[in-house]
Amino acid sequence: MHVVEVQNLESLKWTRMSEKNQLLEEMQEVFTPRKPLDLTYFLYVLASIIFVGLLLFPKIYVQQQIYFKSRDIAKLQSEYEMLKEENKLIKSSVESIRFKNQILDTIF
User: Fold this and answer.
1) Does residue 9 surpass a pLDDT of 70?
2) Model pTM above 0.70
3) Distance in angstroms (rounded) separating the CA atoms of residues 61 and 37
4) Sign of CA dihedral 100, 101, 104, 106
5) Residue burial 92-108, b: 16+ Cβ < 10 Å; e: rest
6) Does 1 have pLDDT greater than 60?
7) What is the DSSP string of 30-86?
8) Quick one: which of 37, 38, 19 has its CA closest to 27?
9) SS3 of residue 108 by DSSP
10) In this model, does residue 35 exceed pLDDT 80?
11) What sign does the dihedral 20-23-24-25 (CA atoms) show?
């Protein structure tokens, strides 16, 4: 029995040591200073930003164009409605002038 207990203690000790070593390795990863960013990383980030910009630029451009065209359409539509109302007023004015003219022609 004593030999089994010694073996269990040895395995427990070995397990604790491996856990300590693992913890020390993780602590070293956290506390060691990171290496400075190099040129390739900077170029990779720059290329990624340019790629995303190239993908999004057409969408933004088209949305802007749609917005401006819809503004122009709304302006033209309001002008069209105003001109229709003005046309109605002019037609009624012309009709009243014709009526007056017909009455005056019949009197003289």
Assistant:
1) no
2) no
3) 34
4) negative
5) eeeeeeeeeeeeeeeee
6) no
7) HHSPPPPP-HHHHHHHHHHHHHHHHHHHHHHHHHHHHHHHHHHHHHHHHHHHHHHHH
8) 19
9) coil
10) no
11) positive
Tens-place pLDDT, residues 48-98: 999 999 999 999 999 999 999 999 999 999 999 999 999 999 999 999 999
The burial of 65, by beta-carbon neighbours within 10 Å (0-12 exposed, 13-18 middle, 19 or more buried), is given as exposed
Residue 73, amino acid: I
Average pLDDT, the chain: 85
The tokens for 15 are 């397990």
**What is d(CA 8, CA 14) in angstroms, rounded to the nearest whole number?**
10
